[in-house]
Amino acid sequence: MAAKGGAMASMLVLLLAALLLASASSPAAAAEQGVLRMKPTDSGYRYNHTLAHILVEYASAVYTSDLTSLFTWTCPRCTGHTKGFEVIEVIVDVENCLQAFVGVAPDPRSIIIAFRGTQQHSVSNWIEDLFWKQLDVTYPGMPDAMVHHGFYTAYYNTTLRHEILKSIQWARKTYGKLPINVVGHSMGGALASFCALDLSVKFGSQEVELMTFGQPRVGNPAFAEYFGTQVPRTIRVTHQNDVVPHLPPYYYYLGQWTYHHFAREVWLHQIIDGNVVTRNETVCDDSGEDPTCSRSVYGISVADHLEYYGVTLHSDSRGTCQFVMGTANSVYSYIHEVDGAIILSRYPQEPRALESM
Ligand SMILES: *[C@@H]1O[C@H](CO)[C@@H](O)[C@H](O)[C@H]1NC(C)=O
Ligand SMILES: *[C@@H]1O[C@H](CO)[C@@H](O)[C@H](O)[C@H]1NC(C)=O
Ligand SMILES: *[C@@H]1O[C@H](CO)[C@@H](O)[C@H](O)[C@H]1NC(C)=O
């Protein structure tokens, strides 16, 4: 009896310790328990450092508030590796404060879709809110897969999805059957994830690649697993102590009632050895929650969230949801307003049809 009680007590202590450690997202948080072991479905897919350097520039450019210079690809962030990019459509959902573009890139020769992160006045407030996000929507057709309603509807229930699908159809008709790269930073990474999943189901997993920078968690373990099988060509880049990839928190003991990242993380960090600082890019395991990557440090930095590969990733204007647009000699072929959204496009806009996409 006494021995049993003792055993129980020590088990309780262990459990409590585990809970505390896990809650703190500590490096010691159990590596094995509760972490998914996912079968890599595209073991041939590798992290490409050069590609990441190119794609992060698109994730930065989509923050541009001057829509004319964005559409004509003459904005200050529209240089460097992205030269020669042809924008097909810029979508600004004014009501929901969202922005995205679709275009065709010379290298890698592909359709690129980029989503902007939050434009709220204070990034810190947005990050604080992230802590409390609920898993409150069941992903359609996946009874166990839960996601956050806000991220989900920002892609599925706004003008974005409809416009993006239309632009891809037009681009593939005009430029041929190009592969698709979806990118986004921060909340834009969350939207990019839903978009890549949507497009993979629609066009096939081999046609779609996803790369996000500092994205939050978007769904539970069942969702992460489903995501891994549907969008195997996924790289989720995290940077040093960036706080956002740590949110909403992951609690391994909550089973399906916790958020859980999908694979594959690539963790950018510095190793300081005396006076020598080395930049390292760790390609993480296929669990989505590799304890030796960003989870091995505390997520305490907003500064690390706003810069990836030395590229600035935040708004270029001070206001909330601001944008400017040139009116003279219209460089965009078509301007269109629908459901509180402004759309600049290279192809004619039909009155919104009720076709099911
Ligand atoms: C990496 O991406 C760059 C840019 O698209 C490409 O030129 C290069 O061939 C890729 N490398 C590999 C090993 O796939
Ligand atoms: C989608 O948006 C419509 C109109 O804004 C709203 O009535 C509906 O409840 C939304 N659906 C979801 C799943 O949020
Ligand atoms: C540096 O990155 C490599 C490649 O991902 C990894 O194998 C190695 O463990 C990393 N080194 C450190 C000290 O994190």
TrEMBL record:
**Which residues, if any, are the signal sequence?**
1-30
Asked if the Swiss-Prot or TrEMBL record annotates the protein with the keyword Signal, the reply is yes
InterPro entries hit by this protein: AB_hydrolase_fold, Fungal_lipase-type, Sec_MonoDiacylglyc_Lipase
**Species, as recorded:** Urochloa decumbens
Which keywords does the record carry? Signal
Q: Which PANTHER family match?
A: ALPHA/BETA-HYDROLASES SUPERFAMILY PROTEIN, LIPASE FAMILY PROTEIN, EXPRESSED
Name of the protein described by the UniProt record: Fungal lipase-type domain-containing protein
Cross-referenced SUPFAM superfamilies: alpha/beta-Hydrolases
Residues covered by the Fungal lipase-type domain: 112-250
* UniProt xrefs under CDD domains: Lipase_3
* Keyword flag Signal: yes
Tell me the superkingdom of the source.
Eukaryota
> Which Pfam families is this protein grouped with?
Lipase_3
